[in-house]
Design goal:
17% of the residues lie in helices and 42% in strands. The protein is built from 3 helices and 10 strands, in the order αβαββββββββαβ. Strands 2-3-4-5-6-7-8-9 form an 8-stranded antiparallel barrel. A hairpin with a 7-residue loop joins strand 6 and strand 7. 26% of the residues are buried. The protein binds 2-acetamido-2-deoxy-beta-D-glucopyranose (NAG). The site of 2-acetamido-2-deoxy-beta-D-glucopyranose (NAG) has 4 residues, from strand 3.
């Protein structure tokens, strides 16, 4: 019991900035017959969960295929007037489930789940990442991505509905800032 408390004490500061929920991760439906190649290229962040303390704006990600099942990921944002980029790698972890990607922004960290719940490849993508912590609760991230910096309200509503119908709590999802984006990737 003592060691369990120690682990919780260690983990809690990491998750406090996020949105912990009791119980295990939900098990959402993902995009059927996901085509990694069509998903490549530039995506803009339209909305995200959770709200982050660092308020970068103009967040976008450029995905490039490196093999049939692995990708290079370059994300950028403007923070305090500076363009900042981070680079990561990603892969389909199980070819039977191609919409369940893993992405890592550091070679020392394991892949985090990056699941494409839905996409039409040309307008919008609905992305979810969830990690179980000690089977007691889970921590999750969710994004609505667009091929352009803005999406019609109806498209955003449909994307939110995809999360909701999969029991993903997006009450705290916030729109991303995509204005004054003079510096780009
Ligand atoms: C995305 O990355 C590819 C490969 O590095 C590059 O050729 C392309 O110009 C990039 N696109 C954008 C919008 O940065």
């Amino acid at each position: 019991m003592k060691s369990c408390i120690a682990v919780v004490a260690f983990v809690l500061p990491l998750v406090r900035a996020q949105v912990p929920h009791w119980g295990p991760c939900p098990d959402p439906e993902v995009q059927p017959a996901f085509d990694l190649r069509q998903f490549m290229g530039r995506w803009f962040e339209i909305a995200k969960l959770p709200a982050q303390f660092e308020k970068g704006r103009c967040i976008e990600t450029n995905f490039t295929l490196t093999t049939e099942s692995s990708i290079r990921v370059v994300s950028s944002e403007i923070l305090n007037g500076e363009l900042r980029k981070i680079e990561g790698i990603g892969a389909i972890e199980d070819m039977k489930n191609p919409a369940k990607l893993g992405i890592s922004y550091s070679y020392v960290l394991p892949y985090s789940p990056y699941w494409i719940l839905s996409t039409d490849y040309v307008n919008v993508a609905v992305v979810y990442s969830c990690t179980d912590v000690l089977r007691l609760f889970h921590v999750d991230f969710a994004w609505i991505l667009g091929r352009s910096r803005t999406l019609p309200d109806a498209t955003i509503m449909e994307a939110r509905e995809i999360f909701a119908s999969n029991n993903i709590d997006i009450i705290r999802m916030v729109p991303s800032q995509q204005h004054n984006c003079d510096k780009t990737l």
